[in-house]
Amino acid sequence: MSKYTIIKCGRLYTGQNDDFLTDMEILVEDDRIKEVDKTVTAVPGAEIVDLSDATVTPGLIDAHVHYSFGEWRTRAHDTIYEAPIYHGMYALYNARKSLARGFTTVRHCGTNCNDAYSVVVAKRMIEDGQFDGCRLVVAPHYLSTTNGHGDFSKLMMTNPYLADRIWQDYPGRGSGPDEFREVVRKQIKYGADFIKIFASGGFNSEGDGPEDYTFTDEELQAIIDTAHAMHKKVSSHTYGPDLVEKQLNMGIDGIEHGALIRDPALLARMKEQGVYLVPTFSPYEGIIHPNEDNLKNQSPGMRRKLRYYGDWLREAREVIVASDIELGYGTDFVAVHYPYEGGWEFYNMLGSGVDPLRALAGATRVNAKIVEMEDSIGAIAPGYYADVAAWKRDLLTDPCALLDCAFSMKGGKIFRTEADI
Ligand SMILES: [Zn+2]
Asked: What pLDDT shows up at residue 420?
């Protein structure tokens, strides 16, 4: 027998249009939305959820998380010293915490440890109902060259013998197009929903910089072609405009960060080619809106690089905000905040002048396309999964609104919110 729930919404953002409807109802049958209307069909015995004093949205999506650690202050240490089960258990923990904060789907963009397939296990356990948690879309290991941004053995670079031993076994490591073809095939074989690569160096790592190219052209093309042959997308951590352009010519699907893109024409080309951008505003906030407390919590290397690139980052942020490219919504919290604190990206987007409705579109319909689930999540509409969140504060005026979740439902099931756990 079907289970029915009727949700009464004071205000409703459906994720499909840039507006709010008032006094609406949602009829949920089992795990799906059946009707959305001023008054839905009265089903005897339906559970009534009264959110008439709140704003209802689709369950939100964070398109850039790293879920396999817990305490960001000791993340580097834990990467080396903790066992695979630790990373899998933390993926479950973070998924539960995110769900309690109204984020019903997240895209896990890789882990730097030698057995990140534990995150695939966490995903499966949640799907099978053994644990409560948001939906996980997973790239288990990110792909990196030696000394690339994903070469976590640099954490022990003062001991080359041990660093080499640990790096040699990393499943995302390769050298040359043949090795990377094999790496892509194995990631997909063991459960990757997409492929995540570190095409450029980065900020939060020693020994590489955001303008560094880490793959050869042949390696990049081999990765993209192999993933596409198996119908998987490739998402590329990239900062500099030259490398973004190079990958556009190669058929890349999406760019993570892009924080040094200050050429509007390049963003226009991305839009025209249908290449998505997940700009992850949050990690660079300490320098964009100078905040010593925030910077203090970053690693010394990241702090140094943020200061060096400060003007460029600020200029690029303005260009990205002024463009009309769809912005994905992703936090990339590995420092400063916990991985499940997805609401902070809204705060940082609004603080950079992004319209709240554009930010909400990012966390719903734009991200739904990025995770290739646009027909089933990211909208309050008949046929979609009943992934529903509600918020106590005004989403149009309060940048902290997505930090205050009043209600969380995934697949028609109501979960406890942050205040309860
Ligand atoms: Zn990341």
From this structure: 59
Cα 66 to averaged position of ligand 1 atoms, centre (Å): 6
Position 421 pLDDT exceeds 60: no
Q: How many Å is the Cα radius of gyration of the chain?
A: 21
**pLDDT the model gives residue 419:** 66
Number of H helices and E strands in the chain, helices first, is 15, 14
Report the interhelical angle of 300-308 vs 310-322 (nearest 10°): 70
Distances 314 to 237, 259, 352 between C-alpha atoms, Å: 19, 9, 10
Interval between CA 336 and ligand 1 midpoint (Å):
13
Question: For the purposes of burial, counting CB atoms within 10 Å of the CB of 297, is it exposed (0-12), middle (13-18) or buried (19 or more)?
Answer: middle
CA of 273 to the centre of ligand 1 (A): 23
Same-domain pairing of 107 and 173 = yes
CA 13 / ligand 1 centre spacing (Å): 28
Q: Which residue, 342, 368, 402, sits at the end of a domain?
A: 342
Q: Look up the domain containing 309 and give its range.
A: 60-342
